[in-house]
Amino acid sequence: MVAIPKSEKYTLVADIPDALLKTYLARDVVAVDAELQGLQLWRDEVCLVQVCDNEGNVCLVKIKPPKLPRNLARLLTNPSTMKIFHYALCDVAFLQVSLHVDVYPYRCTKIMSKLARTYSDGHGLKNLVLEFAGVELDKQNQTSDWSKPELSQSQLKYAASDVLYLVDVYRQLENMIDQRGKLPSGITLKELNEKSQACLPVFVEIFLNRYGDRDRGWETSLFSH
Fold first, then answer.
1. Which of 145, 151, 167 is nearest to 55 (CA)?
2. Domain-embedded: residue 221
3. Per-residue pLDDT tens digits for 165-183
4. Is residue 184, in this structure, part of any structural domain at all?
5. What is d(CA 180, CA 205) in angstroms, rounded to the nearest whole number?
6. Cα angle value 168/170/173 (rounded, 5°)
7. Does residue 223 lie in a domain region?
8. Which residues on neighbouring strands pair with residue 49, listed in sequence order?
9. Which residues contact 128 (CB under 8 A, 6 or more apart)?
10. 156 in Cβ contact with 12 (< 8 Å)
11. Residue 24's CATH number
């Protein structure tokens, strides 16, 4: 498990450096997260995109919508690199609206947690990192102003922590899912997870087209009776 050094200092970049992009593209999975102006799709924009691989190589890309940095675009659309998000619906929808990029392929650890960790009601990233890494994430800067040209070290450390543990969390959830037996319908939990993940792009389209009518637009009654 990757640990955040207490003395670590992070810097903002305008794009992923070429050498680091090459490293990311060689990985089968990378963690991705986005910091936003707010949670209202079509009004608020992406301010920061964080990326990290399984070796703890963190990159914090400051975004100036609607411009999408070239190397970041290459990574987000590279078909050979799985992008891991926690609550992918939100980040992927915002990346599409704010930066006009169709992220592919991607997986959501919140869905995986809800499928595998049925013993818990806590499926936030903070819950998962505490359980799997024994680390309590500091969420003090979660609602801070991410649109400022310069961000504090406290903000940058918070942003980095949202991706630094995520690949390992994904791997551990994968193991939990793989170890589960067959479900009542006869399919495995792994198969159900694959089917659930495959539904994500459909729900993104639903929310992009303003059919989200619950939870500030992030849930829909479209399939209700």
1. 167
2. no
3. 999 999 999 999 999 989 9
4. yes
5. 31
6. 110
7. no
8. 34, 61
9. 86, 109, 113, 165, 169, 173
10. yes
11. 3.30.420.10
pLDDT tens by residue, 19-66: 999 999 999 999 999 999 999 999 999 999 999 999 999 999 999 999
Q: Quote the distance between the C-alpha of residue 204 and its chain's center.
A: 14
Is 18 within the bounds of a domain? yes
CA distance 71 to 158: 23
* Sequence-distant (≥ 6) Cβ neighbours of residue 34 within 8 angstroms: 46, 47, 48, 49, 50, 91, 94, 95
Q: Give 55-84 as a DSSP string.
A: T--EEEEE-BTTB--HHHHHHHH-TTSEEE
Domain that holds residue 143: 12-211
- Alpha-carbon gap, residue 225 to 207, rounded angstroms: 19
10: amino acid identity, one letter:
Y
The total number of structural domains that make up the chain: 1
